[in-house]
C-alpha cells in the first residue's frame, strides 16, 4: 500500500495533531488499552478538547481508520490493471515509521467495537469503491479480494510469516496474487470452472 508516514507538519491544526496521535496510539496499542486521556497527553491538550473535537473514542477510532483506508490513493489507474497494482502494493516494502491499516486491525480485532468499525469502513472504503470502479465485480467478489489482500498483509507485515517476507520470490508472489485477484475480477461466465467441491458425508 502507499506510504503513510504519520508525521506532524507546521500546517497541522490541533485536530490534525489529535488524529495523527490517535493513529499512532491505535497502531501500537489495542482499542481497549487506548483512552482519550492518553491521546490528549500525547498532543498536549486536555481530554475535554479531544472529546469536543471527535465526540467519543469510537468516533476518533473511526476517523483514524478512515484516514488510513483511502481508496482514492490506491484504487488508481485503469480497472484492467488493478489486479497488478494491488499485488505490487500489498508486497511493497514497509518503510520505517510507516503505518498501514492492518497494523491497527491487528491490535484491536478482538474488540467488538473496533471490529464493527473496521467491518463498516472496509465495506465503505474498499468493497463498494472497488465494485463501482470495476463494473463486472460484484460486492461479494470485492469482499473476497479484500480478504485475500488483508490476509497477505497481516501474514507478511504483522505476523512476519517467513515465506511471505522480501526475497527473490517477490516477483513470483506478485504474479500469483495478481492472478487470483484477476480471477475474482472476471465475470461469472469467465470464472466458471469444472472443479467441484467435495460433498461431506454425514457421520454414521
UniProtKB/TrEMBL annotation:
DNA-binding region range list: 35-54
GO molecular function: DNA-binding transcription factor activity; transcription cis-regulatory region binding
Name of the protein in question: AcrR family transcriptional regulator
Keywords, sorted A to Z: DNA-binding
Top-level taxon of origin: Bacteria
Keyword DNA-binding found: yes
Organism field: Pseudorhizobium flavum
Alphabetized Gene3D superfamilies for the sequence: Tetracycline Repressor, domain 2 (1.10.357.10)
Keyword DNA-binding belongs to the record: yes
Pfam families on file: TetR_C_16 (PF17920), TetR_N (PF00440)
Domain (HTH tetR-type) ranges: 12-72
